[in-house]
């Protein structure tokens, strides 16, 4: 049985891919029966699409893999607290468990309403949050530095 | 200058397409400079994807048409109050105006939090709501009737 930490590190690898592509570095994986069935990272810039968050793509990919809309037997690992849009999608998917890294004090769903997720979805937070925050801080630091030139 | 009612009737045509395809009948159009630049209807069943709401597809299509992520110069007409997921996407897109038909007392975003949308997005509601509700009621009535066989 693989650990939550193992899967969160896989989500962080996805976040790193976003970073390398100049995207806000957020990554996600969906796990079912101890196997990763979907992995995704933020692609909003490349796709010119605000809906292309890591979680949204991971939900679509996982449902496609399973051949069914509902992810009640799955765990999603995501490096940052989902926004309202992604939390709403996670609720529609009736996700079994959500494990996220860093809190998002500005755009995280919990700032808006605590009852957005499906009542049966288990939540665990704070896993590898330091690594997630460091990656995000590096990204925005670099972005600001580049804007000065 | 075409009227709000004209565009909402176009959104209702999209909802009818969803109905005909056995999908929960919700339709949307995005208008920019008095022209429809995107139209979509709910496809969650056909695509086996909870994220395939009319609004989400309309946002993706409109951004693709414009070549930019932000829809601040656009109006979205949607036959039903957006859910939390769609309202979150509408907020990210910084939509100029949102016009919706029927309220959704169960899943509408305003039941969860009033501050999900971007503060600059203008909201108008109740347009052609009766037609929207009738279509939804017919859909669920038919669905229940078919389940008895």
Summarize the structure.
Two copies of one chain form a homodimer. Chain A is 42% helix and 20% strand.
Any overview of this molecule?
2 copies of one chain form a homodimer. With 149 residues, the first copy, chain A, is of the alpha/beta class. Chain A has helices at residues 4-20, 54-66, 84-92, 109-112, 129-147, and strands spanning 27-32, 35-41, 74-80, 97-102, 122-125. Chain A has a 5-stranded mixed beta sheet. In chain A, helix 1 (4-20) runs parallel beside helix 5 (129-147). The radius of gyration of chain A is 15 Å and the shape is globular. The N and C termini of chain A lie far apart (49 Å). The model of chain A has no long low-confidence stretch (mean pLDDT 97). Chain A binds chain B through residues 44, 48-51, 56, 59-60, 63-64, 67-70, 83-89, 91-93, 112-113, 115-116, and chain B through 44, 48-51, 56, 59-60, 63-64, 67-70, 83-89, 91-93, 112-113, 115-116.
Overall form of chain A? globular
Main sheet makeup of chain A: 5 strands, mixed
Structural class estimated from helices and strands of chain A: alpha/beta
- Rounded to the nearest angstrom, the distance between the terminal CA atoms of chain A is 49 Å
**Main sheet strand line-up of chain A:** 2-1-3-4-5
- Strand content of the residues of chain A, in percent? 15-25%
The percent of residues in helical segments of chain A reads 40-55%
Question: Mean pLDDT of chain A, nearest integer?
Answer: 97
What's the helix count of chain A? 5
Helix and strand run of chain A? HEEHEHEHEH
Unreliable stretches of chain A, pLDDT < 50, 5 or more residues?
none
């Amino acid at each position: 049985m693989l650990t939550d930490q193992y899967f969160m590190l896989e989500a962080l690898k996805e976040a790193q891919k976003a970073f390398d592509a100049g995207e806000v570095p957020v990554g996600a994986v969906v796990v079912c029966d101890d196997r990763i069935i979907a992995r995704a990272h933020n692609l909003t810039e490349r796709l010119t699409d605000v809906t292309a968050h890591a979680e949204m793509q991971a939900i679509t990919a996982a449902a496609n893999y399973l051949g069914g809309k509902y992810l009640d037997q799955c765990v999603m690992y995501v490096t940052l607290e989902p926004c309202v849009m992604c939390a709403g999608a996670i609720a529609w998917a009736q996700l079994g468990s959500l494990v996220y890294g860093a809190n998002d004090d500005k755009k995280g769903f919990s700032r808006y309403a605590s009852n957005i997720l499906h009542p049966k979805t288990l939540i665990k937070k704070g896993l590898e949050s330091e690594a997630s925050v460091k990656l995000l801080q590096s990204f925005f630091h670099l972005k600001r530095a580049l804007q000065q030139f």
